[in-house]
Amino acid sequence: MSAGAVPVQVRGACPHDCPDTCSLLTTVENGVATRVQGNPDHPQTGGVLCNKVSRYTERTYHSERLLQPLRRVGPKGAGKFEAVSWEAALSDIAARLKAIAARNPEAIVPYSYAGTMGQVQGESMAGRFFNRLGASLLDRTICSSAGGEGLTQTLGAKVGMRVEFFAEARLIIIWGSNSIGSNLHFWRYAQQAKRDGARLICIDPRKSETAEKCHEHIALLPGTDAALALALMHELISHDWLDHDYIERHTLGWAALRERALQWSPERAAAVCGLPVEQIRSLARDYGQCFVNRQPAAIRLNYGMQRVRGGGNAVRAVACLPALTGAWRHRAGGVLLSSSGQFPVDRAALQRPELLAGRQPRTINMITIGDDLLRESSPSFGPKVEALIVYNSNPVTVAPESGKVVQGFAREDLFTVVLEHFQTDTADYADYVLPATTQLEHWDVHSAYGHTDVLLNRPAIAPLGHAKPNTQIFRELATRMGFTESCFSDDDETLCRAAFGDKVDFSELLDQGFAALKLPEAPFAGGRFPTPSGRCEFFSERLAALGLDGLPDHLPNHEAAGSSAQFPLAMISPPARNFLNSSFVNVKSLRDLEVEPRLEIHARDAAARGISSGSIVTVFNQRGEYRVKAQVSNRARPGVVNGMGIWWRKFGLDGSNVNQLTSQHLTDMGRGPVFYDCLVEVQAEPQTG
Ligand code: SF4
Hints:
By secondary structure, this protein is α/β, with parallel strands linked by helices. The chain is built from 22 helices and 27 strands.
C-alpha cells in the first residue's frame, strides 16, 4: 500500500475485543496514517468510533512502540533487553524450541486470546505452527466460555436477536453490561428506542455510566443473576404471562422448569440478590406486560454476569425468558449475548488440524496458567511447561491470581517469547520480544460477536520499523523449524479468503469493506433453534449426561457475599471506560482520563473503615493484596467494591493490580474464570506525618 501527496482512505476493521467490530476509515497522507474514523457507510458503525479507537494513530505511532526484536539481558521481569536482528532472534528461538520439542513438544505452550479478534492474525498461521509442532493446546476461556456454553446448552449456539432491532423494542433489559463503555453501538440503538418511548432497565451490581442513564437500575449482588431470572419466571407463571403456544411448540422441559421456578419466590430471590422484593416484582411486571400487550421485549446480556461460579447457569436462566413469553416472535424481541455462532468461519482451513497427524496433545486452561507454570512433570499433568509463546495477550496483567502468574513467568528455566506492540507487564518477563504490526499495517478478516457483518481489514500503511505481522513471524519460525508443508507459504490475503471460503462474497469485502450475513430478521419466531431437539432447551439432556443439573439453577459464588467474616466485601473488577481489557492503558491521553487505579466503595462501607475519598487503601484477601486509591461513590452498592481494571501492574501503586486478588477457580460450565466471584477486605492506610 502506498500513498501519494493526495490523502487516501483505506477501509479496515477494529480488531479489539468488543462486540461492535467497527468498520474503520484510515486517512493516509504520504504513507502516514493521519486519522482513523468510523465508516459512515457501515450501518452498524454509523461513522462513529469509541473514544479509544478514535485515537488509534496515537497508539500506532506511540513513541514506545516496539520496532525491533529484543533479547533479554537482565534478570527475568526486569524489562532489560538488547536489540537483535530478526535472523538472530528467530534462529535462536527455533533452536530452543527444537531442543524442547525433541524431548516433548507438549512442554511448549501457546498463550493467546483476543488482543486482535482477526481470524488471520489470531489463530491461522499460529494454529498451523503449533499443530505441526504438536505443542500443548490452549483452552481459550478467559472471557466468555461459561456464558457461551450456557447459551449453547439453551439456544443451541452463540446466536440471538439482531442488534439493530433493539431500536424497535419497547422494553430493553441491559443485563451485566456497561454498554456505554463496552458496547457503544448497541447503546445507540437503545437510545433510539428510549427516544421512541421504550423503557430501559439495567441490571448490574455497579451503577455504571449506562445504569445511570436507564430508567431503572437493579443493583443485585454479584453472582445472583440466576436467582433473579428464576424469580422472574416465578412471577410470569403466577400471573400467567406466558405464551403457552410458543412454549408448547418450541421448548423442551417446560414442566420441569416450571417446578424449579416455582421454588424461587420473589422473597427468596430478594434475600439472595440483596434487592427489594418489590423491585423484582416490578421487573417481572414490565417483562410480562410486554407479552400481554404484544410488545417486543429485548434483553442485551453481556459477559460481565457470567464471571462467577454459576455463570453458565445464570446465562441459561436468562436465555430461557424470551421463550416463556414468546418474545422471539418479534424481530425486536429475544436475547442477545453473542452473535459469533452465526458466522460460517472455516477454522479447519485456517488452522489445519490435520497437521497434528493423529497426535492429541494435552490442553492447558489459560485461566490456571498461574498454577500450571509452577507444576512439575507428572502423569496427570504431563511435562513441566518449558516454553511459552505469547501473542495477542498480556497474561501477567489479565490472568487471575497474578501473584502466582508472576512467580511462574519469573522462572529462570522457562523460555518465553512474546509477540507485542508494547513493553507490557508480560513482555517484561520475555526472553525474546518480537515486534508485531498493528491493525493499520496488516491484512485481516473479522467476524463479530455483537452484529452479523463480516469485515475486511486492508493494511493502510507499511509496517513500522522492523515490525512483522503475527502470521509472518510464525511463517518464518516454521521455516527455521524445518516445517516444509506448503500451507506455511500461504500469504495473508489467501488466509483472508480461506476464513469464510465461498460462504462470504470476497469481492464484496474488497469493494465495500464489509458484507452482511444473510439471516432472518426474527431468527426464532418459528422455533427451529440449533439445539439437538430444535427447541429452546429449558432442560438440557447434554448437561444431564455430563452429570450436571439439566435445568438452570442459582449456584452460589465460590466466595459468596456475606459468607466470610474475614473478607466481608464482594469485589468485582469491571473494565475502566477508557481501556479495553489491558489494551490502551499505555496511551497517555486515555490513561489521563482514567487518572489512576481506583477502588469504588460505598459511603457506608467507607465510613465503617475510616476511609475517605482519595485516600490510599490496601485491598486484600488470602491470595494477596494491592494498594489503590479509594473513591467513595454511589457507583458501588453497599457490600460490594469495584476495583476498576485492567491497569498494567507497572502503573499500579505497588507494581500490582486487581488480579492479585482474583482466584483461579472455574465456572460451572465452560471452564471459565470467576473474576467477579471474589471476597476481600479493605483497610485504610495509616496516615503519616
Ligand atoms: S473498540 Fe468497539 S466501539 Fe471502539 S472502535 Fe473498536 S469495535 Fe468500535
